[in-house]
């Protein structure tokens, strides 16, 4: 390292020395808009192949100083306008170059960031989508980078998972390509791959995870590129199978005066929908009915006397009691649970709240041709719509660039983030405030008469008390930085050294009060832990971009990189707190445990790209990367990932000029291989003994895992065919892509017989195919006839992906949570369960032969106690004498009768944005949709267990089967549920299709002269609504749901998941 | 120049890493090949064999004690876990994860022991006595685990060698019940020959002794209906062993003062390594979750709540509270779960002798032993009217229930007494007949091991 630094210093000195020796001159000029002729501000004017770059001022003027003498090409570019170049001769006199820019609806002149470089959209051969967050966030503020992507990019499915503030959001680029190794794309920010994933310290039920990614602030981001096909992504090799998201942050530009921006918004969030649950009297009715139906209510007093006792009775009523009957046989069971007739609690109402969110952002950017800066700071605050949740984030960023000489540019990017995530136990626990609010009986009061919490609830721990007394908090500090030096070796050839650091620290804190919840028995429980993760990147590249002659342009890059990743984890827990006022672990009198872990992996890579463009028409690109990873087994240490692609711009051919309809047409094809290594444990290929198998406080070591020296990455071979077309003078742009991704060598934890002492071994076994297409349409429906005239643009993207798991170990299925399952020939994580056929209406329909032999066709034995009102399940499979599945009904409902009952994957999904602007006003409506996906409403296993679990029931109970109400959809009330009506079945699968107005905004930009009078450059006020309207048939809180957000297999399952909020926001942006 | 630069970066990359950046050494593990070659490693690996008994899904932390009572008539389901519910309703599905946990924990322990048996003889520096003793402990651990397997599942694959390579040979078919029993017996015989005596006090708490092997062997003979051997081993232990009945039944289950002369082998639990029994017993108002509760009249015709005489000292451990809200109280450290859990204790050995005696026709001996146990619990001796063999046997069965509830016996006891018609009838009212007398082989195991057959009826 030190040697390298010395060399760099020498290079720097050498580079600076000759800089002064060259003759230099100035280029100046003005940029105007085609048509209106008005000055264009903010146009980037650059000397091609040089380092000089400035931005035009309010009058559209620019000056480029210190340009080396001679013939120079100057390029003027602004987003939304077609770039132009002019060639001038720089000498003693200032050269002049003026530009008139026309609209670039298709963005063909935009610069697209690709792996280790950038290209113009015109010559991008891969399938790459670009987003400028400013275009999104300016109109619709978003909290995270994933929110920016949601619904805006064809083929990218972003699922919010839940309404938990600060929780992880899942992103799928062209479907899922892995079962165990993760399906999130690789994020690279300013050239540094990010630490991703959940380093949470707090185990609080299978709840929503957090993600280091949520520390990124969309306000600081200049552009996001999503690399979707192998051609674009292969240069990231063994980590690119799930696509790559390249994030480029904003940087300062030379300008006359700094660009200062202040942006703020404030919003209020509330649940957009609240399903109904039973009130107290309905609740009592259902449970008493269930209790009676199963004979539980009758106490045999002997001598033919039967005492009828309900499960619940109202205080003060004449509840029959054993005492009324003299000396009963069993005094313990003769009393109903007495409830207060005045209590009727809507628990969901008790925990939901209307919650504020706000953001304050300021930035200053500017500089000279030599030194440029970008500084910004943000504070984002969001409370949860369920009290107790919250997210607070502070970001600071400093990006500096220094042009030391004509040859050398140095730069750095430093981002600091502190975030604070207030959490609560959730989902799959009995101490989650939201889960308990849904489940708690309405006959329980929130508070006692004296104002204290009612802790003597008959069902679950009081969710209001849980919320107020217990804490779960994670605080992160994230440093992300890089330092780079660009050195121009020759005209068009640049070397770059890049050093990156991503340092993530997380402190988790959990406190369970002695008053309520999990720790009442231990007098309080506290847990504190820290996670540290570090990624250090050392990287060098040489890139070139040279015209060989008029018709042949070569560009490319070669490089090497080395990445060291380590992570540490430690935690301590204790119990026995003095009182509920002492919430820190220091007060715990018993330390009940602690643990720590440390692990690392290293990645060494060599990569290159060669791109050739012939006459602007044919572009071919080759990429290759070789990755050596310490995670791979010793027999498979290095993986090579090549790709090739070609682009043919048909519209440049002469014959194209003869027609007016199609203004641009380019065909693209690419093929290549990428990999995925995220699922590999850092030492997963080794046979190991581990510690921690302690016994009676004496240390122990035990077998930990089996060796697999062949362990390697997952491989995805992707074919992409597509075209980009512009119609009617580019007013209508269409991009179409078709792809097929074949993933093989999927990492699976192959189940091995437990009789070996091990449960699984990680092997490269499975295969999966994703096929689909993406359409992105952009239309300028009304083109403004003058500046600030009426303009209407519409953007639509639709994508379809079909996933199929084609090979598993010996064809053996894998189960996820609830109904989620992986099976050959089915999409990943499809729903499997029993098929509900209806409700038994009479005993004649029920078969009571527990061998199934005499069951009438179409009927089957379910349980000995099945009665009318129970759910009838389909008998579709059985076993022969050898125990083999026959595929035929066997008169018995068993586990074998489970089958496909739905899929969480949509047939089509996408987004549609309409924006209009006129005279300073602008409005946009962004609609997101997902069609054809199912949701498994896991809540209903409990809320629709009428009269069974003491849980409150959903309003489906109002239509439950009774002899007088022969429902064909809802089961009867039953205390024992011998028929298992609530088993995982199609009864709880619902259509999860939705169309949602994700965002609607109405804004007004003050006229420039008016703003100018107030000392401002720009000023914009807006109101915004998120999740304003949702059209769906789903009966739960929210169809956009994943109870286990981080899981690969388990998708589209709702289990006490916090719903998303509807948000109304007002905002103000000013620029100085 | 440009290639030089590239090389430089590559070199820097190498220098920045360790000696062999693609082969870092794990800091928390050791390679399997080198794991058991020093005396110290063998000793800590010996501790780890017992650690496998402490899991909740499949060990003494929870299910091994709760399931036999929940499946029979001592406990009822008051929780939310489907795995428990299936057990309580005698509707255990082959994919029940907790049942797979019992299977997995047993084989995990067996594998840990197999590794030790395979390695211990070749370890340099370990004295012959210590090596023999550790080998005997490993055999005891294997016997206890196979005992668990055979009583839940019937015949199971007999695996006695460690396996570090996955080949088709890991697909072991089920051995017969008889083969498992004879393996258990031979292992216990071997263990009895080399284990230290409890009386010597050398063996740390919670580890096998010669007497523990003997007691377990007595129980194994009882299960095989080899009454004479069971009688002899139990008799010898009672008459000549170093153990004595604790006067106060409650003191056997007091986590605050552990260690009585009655314990033959208990699994120790500590603050950092606790069990979850009290948590699953206690109601939420006391910080528990009450996933299971003492049976009441709604769940069985012979609820545990009404099984005790009013003055029975054991009643207070069977339940606290009353009615629907009664909760189990035998293990009571809800905060940290440090109750040690008996694997076998002298009280049970008395009842083993009683049962064997009754079967052998030594009715007086049987009645005496039952009364010894009753006397300790403060209840009156058996009525003099109990005098036929069947009546005495039923008294033994009942006493086992009153004495050994929540210790993982009830279902297997009832099953052993099913040759008595009234017990068989009772079992059928519980729904425990035919295929229900064995648990299903875990489906995941059948999926993973092509040589396995499922028990009938699943």
Number of helices of chain B: 17
Distance between the termini of chain A: 43 Å
Structural class of chain A: mainly beta
Name the biggest interface: A-B, 100 and 106 residues
Number of helices of chain A: 10
Helix % of chain B is 40-55%
Q: Any idea what the radius of gyration of chain A is?
A: 33 Å
Main β-sheet description of chain B: 2 strands, antiparallel
Shape of chain A: globular
Mean pLDDT across all residues of chain B, rounded?
A: 92
Helix vs. strand class of chain B: mainly alpha
Oligomerization:
heterodimer
Q: Name the shape of chain B in a single word.
A: globular
Q: Please trace the helix and strand order of chain B, writing H or E for each element.
A: HEHHEHHHHHHEHEHEHHHHHH
What is the mean pLDDT of chain A? 88
- Characterize the largest beta sheet of chain A: strand count, sense, and whether it forms a barrel: 22 strands, antiparallel, barrel
Strand fraction of chain B equals under 5%
């Amino acid at each position: 390292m030190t040697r390298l630094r010395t060399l760099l210093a020498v290079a720097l000195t050498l580079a600076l020395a000759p800089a002064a020796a060259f003759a230099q001159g100035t280029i100046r000029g003005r940029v105007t808009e085609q048509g209106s002729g008005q000055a264009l501000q903010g146009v980037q004017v650059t000397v091609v192949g040089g380092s000089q770059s400035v931005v035009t001022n309010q009058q559209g003027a620019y000056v480029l100083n210190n340009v080396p003498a001679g013939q120079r090409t100057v390029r003027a570019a602004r987003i939304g306008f077609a770039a132009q170049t002019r060639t001038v001769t720089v000498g003693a006199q200032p050269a002049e170059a003026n530009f008139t820019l026309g609209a670039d609806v298709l963005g063909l002149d935009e610069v697209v960031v690709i792996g280790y470089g950038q290209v113009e959209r015109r010559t991008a051969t891969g399938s790459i989508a670009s987003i400028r967050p400013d275009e999104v966030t300016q109109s619709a503020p978003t909290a995270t980078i994933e929110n920016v992507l949601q619904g805006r990019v064809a083929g990218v499915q972003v699922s919010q998972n839940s309404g938990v503030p600060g929780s992880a959001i899942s992103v799928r680029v062209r479907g899922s390509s892995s079962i165990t190794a993760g399906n999130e794309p690789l994020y690279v920010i300013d050239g540094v791959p990010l630490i991703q994933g959940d380093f949470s310290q707090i185990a609080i039920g299978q709840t929503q995870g957090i993600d280091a990614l949520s520390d990124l602030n969309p306000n600081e981001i200049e552009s996001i590129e999503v690399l979707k096909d192998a051609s674009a992504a292969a240069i990231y090799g063994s980590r690119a199978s799930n696509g790559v998201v390249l994030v480029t942050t904003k940087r300062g530009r030379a300008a006359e005066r700094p660009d200062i921006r202040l942006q703020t918004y404030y919003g209020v969030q509330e649940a957009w929908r609240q399903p109904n649950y039973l009130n107290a009297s309905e609740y009592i009715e259902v449970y008493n009915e269930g209790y009676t139906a199963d004979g539980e209510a009758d106490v045999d007093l002997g001598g033919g006397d039967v005492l009828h006792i309900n499960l619940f009775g109202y205080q003060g009523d004449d509840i029959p009691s054993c005492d009324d009957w003299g000396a009963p046989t069993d005094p313990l069971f003769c009393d109903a649970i007495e409830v207060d007739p005045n209590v009727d609690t809507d628990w969901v109402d008790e925990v939901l709240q209307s919650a504020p969110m706000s953001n304050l952002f300021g930035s200053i950017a500017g500089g000279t041709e030599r030194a440029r800066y970008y500084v910004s700071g943000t504070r984002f605050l969001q409370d949860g719509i369920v009290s107790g949740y919250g997210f607070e984030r502070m970001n600071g960023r400093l990006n500096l660039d220094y042009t030391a000489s004509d040859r050398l540019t140095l730069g750095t990017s430093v981002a600091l983030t502190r975030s604070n995530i207030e959490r609560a136990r959730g989902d799959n626990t009995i101490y989650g405030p939201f889960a308990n609010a849904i489940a708690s009986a309405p006959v329980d009061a929130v508070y006692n008469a004296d104002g204290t919490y009612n802790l003597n609830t008959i069902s679950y721990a009081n969710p209001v008390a849980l919320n107020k007394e217990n804490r779960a908090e994670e605080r992160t500090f994230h440093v992300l930085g890089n330092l780079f030096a660009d050195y121009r070796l020759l005209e068009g050839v640049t070397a770059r050294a890049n050093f990156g650091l991503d340092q993530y620290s997380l402190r988790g804190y959990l406190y369970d009060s002695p008053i309520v919840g999990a720790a009442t028995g231990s007098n309080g429980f506290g847990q504190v832990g820290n996670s540290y993760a570090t990624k250090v990147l050392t990287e060098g590249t040489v890139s070139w971009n040279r015209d060989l002659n008029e018709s042949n342009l070569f560009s490319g890059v070669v490089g090497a990189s080395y990445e060291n990743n380590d992570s540490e984890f430690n935690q301590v827990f204790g119990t026995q707190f003095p009182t509920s006022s002492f919430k820190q672990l220091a007060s715990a009198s018993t330390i009940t445990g602690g643990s720590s872990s440390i692990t690392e992996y290293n990645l060494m890579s060599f990569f290159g790209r060669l791109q050739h463009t012939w006459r602007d028409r044919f572009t071919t690109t080759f990429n290759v990367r070789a990755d050596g990873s310490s995670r791979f087994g010793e027999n498979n240490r290095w993986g090579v990932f090549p790709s090739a692609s070609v682009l043919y711009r048909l519209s440049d051919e002469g014959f194209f000029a003869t027609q007016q309809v199609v203004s641009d047409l380019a065909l693209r094809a690419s093929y290549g291989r990428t990999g995925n290594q995220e699922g590999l444990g850092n030492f997963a290929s080794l046979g190991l003994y581990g510690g921690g198998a302690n016994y009676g406080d004496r240390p122990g070591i035990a077998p930990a895992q089996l060796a697999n020296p062949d362990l390697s990455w997952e491989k995805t071979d992707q074919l992409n065919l597509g075209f980009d077309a512009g119609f009617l003078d580019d007013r209508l742009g269409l991009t179409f892509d078709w792809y097929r991704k074949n993933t093989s060598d999927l990492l699976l934890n192959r189940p091995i017989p437990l009789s070996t002492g091990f449960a699984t071994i990680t092997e490269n076994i499975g295969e999966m195919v994703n096929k689909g297409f993406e359409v992105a349409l952009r239309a300028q429906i009304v083109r403004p006839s003058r500046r600030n005239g009426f303009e209407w643009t519409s953007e639509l993207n639709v994508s379809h992906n079909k996933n199929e798991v084609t090979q598993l170990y010996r064809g053996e299925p894998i189960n996820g949570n609830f109904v989620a399952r992986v099976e050959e020939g089915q999409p990943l994580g499809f729903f499997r369960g029993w098929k509900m056929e209806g409700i038994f209406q009479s005993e004649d329909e029920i078969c009571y032969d527990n061998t199934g032999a005499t069951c009438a066709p179409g009927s089957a034995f379910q349980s000995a106690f099945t009665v009318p009102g129970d759910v009838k399940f389909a008998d579709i499979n059985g076993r022969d004498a050898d125990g083999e599945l026959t595929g035929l009904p066997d008169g018995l409902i068993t586990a074998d009768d489970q089958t496909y009952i739905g899929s969480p994957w949509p047939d089509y999904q996408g987004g549609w944005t309409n924006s209009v602007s006129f005279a300073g006003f602008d409005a946009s409506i962004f609609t997101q949709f997902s069609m054809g996906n199912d949701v498994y409403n896991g809540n209903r296993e409990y809320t629709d267990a009428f009269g069974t679990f003491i849980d409150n029931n959903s309003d489906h109970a109002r239509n439950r089967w009774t002899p007088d109400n022969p429902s064909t959809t809802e089961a009867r009330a039953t205390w024992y549920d011998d028929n298992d009506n609530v088993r995982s079945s199609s009864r709880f699968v619902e259509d999860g299709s939705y169309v949602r107005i994700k965002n609607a905004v109405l804004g007004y930009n003050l006229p420039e002269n008016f703003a100018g009078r107030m000392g401002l450059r720009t000023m914009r006020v807006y109101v915004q609504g998120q999740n304003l309207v949702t059209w769906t048939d789903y009966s739960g809180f929210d169809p956009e749901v994943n109870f286990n957000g981080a899981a690969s297999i388990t998708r589209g399952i709702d289990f006490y998941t916090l719903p998303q909020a509807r948000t109304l926001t007002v905002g103000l942006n000013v620029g100085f | 120049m440009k290639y030089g630069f590239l090389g430089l970066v590559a070199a820097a990359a190498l220098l920045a890493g360790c000696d062999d950046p693609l082969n870092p050494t794990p800091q928390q593990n050791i390679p399997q090949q080198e794991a058991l070659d020093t005396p110290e490693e063998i000793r800590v690996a010996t501790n780890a064999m017992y650690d496998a008994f402490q899991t909740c899904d499949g060990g003494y932390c929870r299910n091994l004690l709760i399931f036999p009572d929940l499946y029979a008539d001592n406990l009822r389901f008051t929780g939310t876990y489907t795995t428990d519910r299936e057990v309580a309703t005698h509707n255990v599905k082959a994919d029940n994860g907790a049942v797979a946990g019992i299977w997995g924990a047993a084989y995990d322990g067996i594998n840990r022991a197999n590794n030790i048996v395979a390695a211990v003889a070749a370890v340099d520096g370990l004295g012959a006595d210590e090596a023999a003793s550790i080998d005997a402990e490993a055999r005891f651990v294997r016997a206890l685990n196979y005992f668990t397997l055979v009583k839940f599942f019937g015949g199971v694959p007999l695996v006695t060698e460690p396996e570090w390579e996955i080949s088709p040979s890991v697909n072991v078919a089920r051995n017969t019940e008889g083969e498992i029993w004879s393996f258990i017996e031979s292992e216990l015989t071997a263990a009895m020959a080399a284990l230290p005596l409890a009386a010597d006090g050398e063996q740390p708490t919670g580890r096998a002794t010669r007497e523990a092997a003997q007691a377990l062997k007595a129980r194994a003979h009882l299960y095989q209906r080899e009454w004479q051997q069971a009688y002899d081993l139990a008799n010898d232990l009672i008459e000549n062993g170093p153990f004595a009945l604790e006067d106060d039944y409650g003191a056997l289950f007091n986590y605050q003062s552990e260690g009585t002369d009655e314990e033959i082998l208990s699994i120790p639990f500590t603050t950092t390594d606790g069990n979850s029994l009290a948590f699953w017993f206690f109601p939420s108002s006391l910080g528990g979750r009450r996933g299971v509760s003492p049976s009441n009249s709604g769940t069985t015709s012979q609820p545990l709540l009404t099984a005790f005489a009013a003055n029975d000292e054991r009643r207070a451990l069977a339940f606290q509270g009353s009615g629907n809200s009664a909760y189990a109280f035998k293990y009571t450290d809800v905060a940290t779960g440090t109750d040690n859990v008996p694997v076998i204790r002298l009280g049970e050995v008395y009842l083993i002798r009683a049962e064997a005696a009754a079967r052998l026709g030594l009715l007086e001996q049987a009645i005496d032993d039952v009364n010894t146990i009753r006397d300790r619990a403060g209840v009156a001796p058996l009525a003099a009217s109990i005098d036929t063999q069947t009546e005495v046997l039923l008294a033994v069965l009942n006493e086992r229930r009153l004495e050994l509830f929540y210790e993982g016996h009830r279902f297997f006891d009832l099953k052993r007494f099913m040759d008595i018609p009234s017990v068989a009838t009772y079992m059928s009212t519980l729904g425990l007949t035919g295929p229900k007398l064995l648990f299903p082989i875990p489906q995941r195991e059948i999926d993973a091991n092509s040589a396995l057959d499922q028990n009938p009826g699943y």
